[in-house]
Amino acid sequence: MEPTIQYAKTKDGVSIAFWTLGEGMPFVHLPVTFSHIQMEWEVPECRRWYERLAEKRKLGRSDPRGFGLSDRDITELSLDAWLLDMEAVVDRLGLEKFALLGPQHSGPVAIAYAARHPERVSHLLLWNTYARASDWSAQPQNQSVRALMDKDWAFYTEAAAHSLLGWSAGEPARRYAALIRESVAPEFMAQMVIPALNEFDVTPLLAQVRSPTLVLHRRQNALPVDVARRLASRIPDARLVLLEGESGAPYLGDTEAVLTAIDEFLGEGEEAVVAAEAPAAGAVHTILFTDMEGSTTLTRRLGDSKAQEVLRAHNTIVREALKAHSGSEVKHTGDGIMASFPSASRALQCAIAIQRAVAEQADTPLRVRIGLNAGEPVAEDQDLFGTAVQLAARICAHAEPGQIVVPTVVRELAAGKGFLLADLGEVALRGFEDPVRLYEVRWQEEG
């Protein structure tokens, strides 16, 4: 059944066409470049691709400004404009947290959004894309195809379709060429789209991406594998999956391999989707903060690159422990991570798992302090606020590297669960009038 076309209005007044398909974990699929969400549905291979992605998810697709069924009367175009398009659809759908797929020329848009909104992107997936437009435009094949645009629009669309889908694509390429001709006006493409794409360079944002990231790339594609390797190496904790084939369309070639990689990457998030939702206002939650010891000193001593490796190790350890103990990452604090748990015992189990994993990193200078508190935080804009959160942060700051420190409320909630706690006495914490009794959680294995 063909999905219903709906519209969202951007902050600068542009109407953006979109549809949704399926139910479950929200999954936003950005366009390649050319986009016509109604005509795509008429392409059998493309339709099967979308149907397969939507089997366990709520899939969303939209036409960016100037393309397809969205407003065509556009006077300016930029990366920020495309971000406004995406934000309009996400807000219209009320998506608080979602997986984001950025294929080819939409890759930089997805990267920029993930860097600016880490609290909303549960998973970032990048397909045959780049951070810097010159990596794409410098390729001889792409230069040759673009040179046709001003000379013969119809011939350009045929060449562009074969370049994207593969030179042996045959009928799918002919259908895609027809879609290109319907999706965008040649003058808009030449005068606005190409100049805007040429300005794309989100390289400085790569290190700011905090979402789990999967970089997918086909080895024989016109975009060299080295571009994908550089992209994956600069995003913290990113995974790189190289696949066989030349087609830039994930729905052609060995599609099952692409879908398997996506399913495996998203699998843990889908199983824990309930735990990953924002905490409900008024509910009792245990808040956990981690903080790396001396991150500024580490940077001065080790240099930016080595210090970033230590931060990536911290992020990986904490996020794996959160997944294993039903914790929800609220935000990255720069030197640590803030998380929320539905129970104090799970939060303590997670904290112990983190410290034990850090202790196993004998070849790195990584040391982490952890502080917890329990209460009724205020939930707003995918973040948590209030006294319960502030006290957890202060307790974390008071802890020594390698320590897990909790107040009386956490000790009482976890009573009888087998945790060993040592009384540290009453401590004056900045911002709190009354002293707070604290306890250290003993996590070292008995010798």
The outline comes out as elongated
Fraction in beta strands: 15-25%
Strand order of the largest sheet: 1-2-4-3-5-6-7-8
> N- to C-terminal separation?
63 Å
Helix amount: 40-55%
Description:
- With 447 residues, this protein is of the alpha/beta class.
- It has two domains: 6-271, Alpha/Beta hydrolase fold, catalytic domain (Rossmann fold, 3-Layer(aba) Sandwich), CATH 3.40.50; 278-441, 2-Layer Sandwich (Alpha-Beta Plaits), CATH 3.30.70.
- The protein has 17 helices and 17 strands.
- It has helices spanning 37-40, 44-53, 79-93, 107-116, 133-137, 140-147, 153-165, 171-183, 186-198, 225-234, 255-271, 273-276, 295-302, 304-324, 344-359, 387-398, 408-413; strands at residues 6-9, 15-21, 25-29, 57-62, 98-103, 121-127, 213-218, 239-243, 285-292, 328-332, 337-341, 368-375, 378-380, 383-385, 404-407, 421-427, 436-441.
- The strands form three sheets. The protein has an eight-stranded mixed beta sheet, with helices on both faces. A seven-stranded mixed beta sheet has the order 10-11-9-12-15-17-16, sandwiched between helices. It has a two-stranded antiparallel ribbon with strand order 13-14.
- Strand 10 and strand 11 form a beta hairpin.
- Helix 13 crosses helix 14 (304-324).
- The relative contact order is 0.09.
- Residues 268-279 have low confidence and may be disordered.
